[in-house]
Amino acid sequence: MLALRLARGAHPVVHLRRALVTVASAGTGFLLLCALGHALAHPYAPAGSALRLAWCAVPLATTVYFAVAVARTDPGTRPRPGLAAIGLGPGRLMAVSAVTTALSTTLGSMLALLFFLHLRGDLTGLPFDGHAADVLAADRHLPVPATLTLLALVPATASVTTALSLRPRGRRPEDAGRTADGPKAVWRRGRGTREKDPAHPGGTDGRQAGQRDHGEDPDSSGAPARARRGSTGSHALSEALALCSSGTSAPWTGTVPDPEQDPYRSTAPQPAPGGLPWGVAVLAAGLAVEMYASRYGTAPGLALPGGSAGGPAGVLGGWVLTALGLILAGPGLTHLCGQVLQAVRPGALRLLAGRVLQEEARRIGRPLGVVCAVASGTYAMATVYSGARPHVGPLTTLGALLVTGCAVLTLATAALEARNARAETTAALLRLGAPATALRAVALLRAGALFAVFGPLTWTVAELAATPLTP
Amino acid sequence: MVAPPDNDVLWARGLTHAHDGSPALHSVSLGVRDGEILAVSGPRGSGKTTLLRCLSGQLLPQEGEVWFNSTPVHTMGPLTRERLRRDRFGWIDPEPALVPELTAWENVALPLMLRGFGRRAAKTAALEWLQRLDVGGCARKRPYALLHSERQRVVVARALVGSPTVLFADEPTAPLHRAERGHVLRTLTAAARSHGITVVLATHDPETAALADRTVSLLDGRRVRTVHLPQPAETEGRAACSLSV
Questions:
Q1: Which ranges does the record mark as transmembrane (chain A) (predicted)?
Q2: Choosing among A195, A335, A351, A359, which should be mutated to test the B contact, i.e. which has the most B CBs within 10 A?
Q3: Same domain, A140 and A282
Q4: Are A442 and A308 members of one domain?
């Protein structure tokens, strides 16, 4: 109920974001149901249906990614003094976030089911009644368990991922040498000076946290338990990627996770994200695999749903590796952008733009990498389809739209999150009399720098990835 | 509209403001003379911050006038007020609101760079001010690595570096311990006096107010001559304990 009440009183923009999650979830649910419809219509060709189902993983992943990003930005479920005062800590708020996400995604699934039934002709009274009845096997009975399982996939994945990525992390007080003031105070400390602390308006608490967290030995037993809300790349996958790329500490061994990975404590500078070499290596490997695989011409092909055959499996593997490389390289490249931007004798504009970009590299870079990966994939697909096989099925179009939309919206959400996180500093700058135009110019400069680096990179990767596919 | 007296650098008449209906200021008038240090004192919630924000042009009062050097501030557009704040006013927050990504000297040099000064000139001025305020050694550190009092001194340097005509300090020493508080305040007032900068200092601390030339007292959003708050009586509602038990 609390989740509903908090959700109801939100700003229209927040409602819009949730509605977009609902739409994305509806689209993915519809694709999943269409795979089911295909299986019903072709009971003796399970391979094709399984392939369709497997292809649904891509929209599913981007939908979940977007849902988690929206949940992280949701102001209704961020830890805040008003709720902390009545004892709602990060643990309960995580549950509230998960429930809110589950609500919007379930709503989407219901919409998908309605639309699906409507297209099958089970529901009547609207245009396009039973328009796809033959394709979706309207003459056969729809199996309820299968439908429910497929429809529950998006809500379950999204809310579990949200809960996992927003769970309060850190050692328990007994592990942390029993700090005197209990878990709640510890949590506040973990948040640092970013959030206004009602009990300590001076922010001395955050100062202490900064000192201890970034002292010489962050893992010493005297360090306070550190609760973190969310990881840098806004979902569990990104954390796994970050762990892979840094290759240092593993969360399951019981050591304290890297304090540098908390985007909500920006008092201390974050070290440069280390994924760039890995990203470049994976990218190069992906391109190499693709080239190598395409030498054998049309080997046993993996068909893209939509009626047309795609490239061979090796080429697809190459694509996946390329996308992974772009995602891994995103934060590092963003950091590099910032570094270059503020490099040689910067004025106020370049200084602010560059340093902020360096600081926000993790938050912005990962979704940016995803957008680049999706863009290069889309470009390659467009090249393929504009060539010998001009026919694109409606479901493929829907899937592509879903993936692109989710990636772009996630990037926008991450940018919004970064802006919210910096709101206090911006307000302080405005109090100083910094012109609003200058701040806007700083933001434009950042966006321009990112575009100047990532645009050509994406284009190059897309061209290279599309080369073996063009006849 | 009555033109203000000539010797007042800042002059306000009948300032009235409410934050979304909650009254903050009610008909406050005051004049700030050139080069003086004026303390605005009063307990928390008495409207000090709102008064300072109205005087510095961050907030337009709902009623009343603000004049700066015989120029009306309350009729200016937002852009003009912004330029006025940038060029003629300095502002110190109760909490050291530094830009966390910049080093101490870059933070101090930022107002100058925003005004269009060259990097070298801004850096020289910033380093000088940091030296003057005894935090020259922290120039290359980022705010997270500084002590709270050091940060507050960096903020003071940032407010003073542009040689403002009027410096607004809103409880500049509230989060500090007493020893540091005295030190920061003395450096602030000394620097202001030696450079002829007018200071409007909001404080709830009588000791801090004692450093000022003149004190204006606020209570519940009104200007009062002296603040005589009733002494808290015996704990209310508790039955008097009897010794004969």
A1: 20-40, 52-72, 93-117, 146-166, 368-388, 394-416, 437-462
A2: A351
A3: no
A4: yes
**How confident is the model over A137-195, as pLDDT tens digits?**
667 778 888 889 999 999 999 999 999 988 876 655 554 444 444 343 334 333 333 33
Question: How many domains are contained in chain A?
Answer: 2
For domain B8-223, the CATH architecture is 3-Layer(aba) Sandwich (3.40)
CA-based nearest distance A218→chain B, Å: 15
In Å, what is the CA distance from A186 to each residue of A173, A181, A202, B14?
Answer: 8, 7, 17, 47
The reply to whether A302 falls in a domain is yes
Per-residue pLDDT at A394 = 79
How confident is residue A258, by pLDDT bands cut at 50, 70 and 90? very low
B window 121-160, beta carbon within 8 A of A = 142-145, 147-148, 158
Render pLDDT for B83-94 as a digit per residue (tens, 0 to 9). 888 888 988 888
> 3-class SS at A310?
strand
Among B50, B95, B123, B158, most A C-beta atoms within 10 A, so best to mutate, is: B95
Q: With CB atoms and an 8 Å threshold, state whether A203 touches B102.
A: no
Burial of B78: CB neighbours in 10 Å, binned 0-12, 13-18, 19+: exposed
Closest among A193, A187, A268 to A228, alpha carbons compared: A187
Q: Which of A32-41, A116-125, A129-138, A435-444 has the lowest mean pLDDT?
A: A129-138
Chain A residues with CB inside 8 Å of B50's CB? none
Q: Which residues of B touch A434 (CB under 8 A)?
A: 86, 110, 114
Are A293 and A312 in contact, with CB atoms under 8 Å apart?
yes
Interface predicted TM-score of the whole assembly (ipTM), two decimals: 0.78
Query: Where in the sequence is the domain holding A348, given as residue range(s)?
Result: 276-469
Residue of A214, A431, A435 with shortest CB distance to B58: A431
Q: In this model, does residue A399 exceed pLDDT 70?
A: yes
Q: For residue A268, list chain B residues with Cβ-Cβ distance below 8 A.
A: 142, 144-145
Closest C-alpha to A421, from A18, A72, A68, A8: A72
Residue B236, pLDDT above cutoff 80:
no
Query: Which helix (H) or strand (E) is B68 found in, with range?
Result: strand B63-68
Specify the higher pLDDT residue, A391 or B93.
B93
**In this structure, what token pair is assigned to residue B203?**
């404080």
Which pLDDT score, from 0 to 100, does residue A390 have? 56
